[in-house]
Amino acid sequence: MDKKYWEEYYSTHRQVNEPSLFARFVAENYAGEGEKDLIELGCGDGRDAIYFNKQGLNVTAVDQASGQIEYLEDKFKDQSGINFVCGDFTQLGTEHTYDLVYSRFTLHSITESEQARVLNWAYNQLNKGGLFCIEVRGKKNELYQKGTQVAGDPDAYIYDDHYRRFLDFEGLCAQLKGLQFSVEFAQEADGFAPFKDTNETFIRVVSRK
C-alpha cells in the first residue's frame, strides 16, 4: 500500500535517526546473547535495522521504497552483517529462516488479508523459539476513525494522504495464538512511541514460536 507516498516521503527524509524505543526494548529484553538472524518488515529510514546490526545481529531489512533502499545500501556498504532489500514484505520468499521477525508500524499499512499472509509467513520462517515482535496502531490510537474510511474496511482510513488500518488488540493476540505462537508480552498503551508533543496509544506484542 502507498508505495508512491513512501517513495516521495523518503526522497526528502534520507537521514537515519536514533533507534525507536521499540527497537531498544526488543534488543534489551529479547535479543539475548550470541549471533542471531533478524528480518525487519518495512525498514523505512533504516534506523532500527542499523541499531540491531550494531548490537551484533545479522539483519535483513526490507522496504518497497527503492530510492531509500539504494541510499541505505550505499551509505552502509562497508558495514558487515546487514543486507538492505527492495521488496514487498507481504510477498517474501521461503528460502531463509530467522531468529527474529521485527515489524514496527508496518502491519497497519497493509490489508487484513495481507496481514494474515505475513503472520503465517512469520511463523513458518521463524526458527524454533524465534520471536515475532510487533508494534502497530490499534483501535485505541488517537488517529482511529480520522480521515476518509476505506470502502469495504471499517477500520481503515486515508488520513494525511496515506492509508492506515487500525488493528484490534485482542484480535491480533488471538490470531497469533491461533498460529501456535506463545504471546510473551502484549499491551496496548501510551508511552511506547512519544513523538514531539504527542504520546499516542499503540499495540506492542512479542510472541514466540
Automatic annotation (TrEMBL):
InterPro entries: Methyltransf_25 (IPR041698), SAM-dependent_MTases_sf (IPR029063). The keyword Transferase applies. Pfam families: Methyltransf_25 (PF13649). Signal peptide: none annotated. Keywords: Transferase. This is Methyltransferase domain-containing protein. Residues 39-130 form the Methyltransferase domain. The keyword Transferase applies. It comes from the Bacteria.
